[in-house]
Structure formats: C-alpha cells, structure tokens
Amino acid sequence: MFSKNKFLITALLFISAFSFSQNTSEPFMNHVRFGGTFNLGFGNNYTTIGLSPSAIYDFNNQFSAGVSFSYLYSKGKYYPVFGEQFEASTSMLGGSLIALYNPFNAFQLSAEFEQMNVNYKDDRFPESSEWIPAIYLGLAYNTGNIAFGMRYNVLFYSNNRSIYSSAFTPVFRVYF
Q: Number of C-alpha atoms within 13 angstroms, CB side, residue 61?
C-alpha cells in the first residue's frame, strides 16, 4: 500500500524534476533563498530554545521547494496535582521537505513533510526516544520575504503523536 508520506515525497520530487527541466541561463544559486526561524521561550521554571535554518529554491515566481533542519530543546520543573515535583527535558532533532506555492502575490499555500526524533528525559521514568512524522498543509499571508499564517497536521488525529498539542500551528517564515 502506498502511504501518505511516500505520496508526498513522490509528488515533491515529480514537481521538482519537472521544474528543473525548464531552460534557464541564470546560475543555480541566484534562485536559492536562505532563512528559517529561531525560538526562545522562558517561563516559571520552564525554558525552550529552538533553531530551524532552511533553504528553498525558487523555480519561478509562484513555486518554491526546499529543506529545513530543526533542533528544539525544552526543560522544566513540573508540579502535578497529585504526586511529587519532577524535572523533565525534551530534545528534538529532525528535518523537513517543504513546497510553497503562491497563486497570488499575498497568498501562499504550503505542504511540508517533517520527521522529528524526540528524546524525552524525566526524573520518574527511563529515557525514551521516538520518531514522530507530520504532514502539514498551510495557508499564509505573504509579504515578499515574510509569510505568516496557519498550518494543519493531517496526521495529528491518525497517530495521536505530535510535538504540538494541537493539529493547528502558526507559521512564520523569513527568507532572504
């Protein structure tokens, strides 16, 4: 059976191959843009730090595709209603393939396949590690180098595993 992940990867490769077949006299690097996101969060006994650099190739004014590398670390002390206080940390490392389509100037559609290795440490249990996949479909407002909007993880309810607490997550992309 052909899985959703294999379908998305195959579709991205097909579109990429089709787009590369177009004749262009410009150097490859003239179409590459770099960017990404940086996360930093502090709370009462809680810290989160994240870095996600990425690169995309602009095939034309409407279609871009690329890759992203992600690392996220969080650590906190938790105070459950019943039981003793405990400390936990999570380290996530992974990457994604992303496709962006701009049918209009200010409107951006996105499809992204992400695979993250989540390593969880907790005072109460042995250390655990697992791979968590996600397929995001998104809609964003695009203002040139910056896009912001919302994306939806289509695998959120089917596998009940996600690095986020909701199927919907905000999108903020910057590329130069």
A: 5
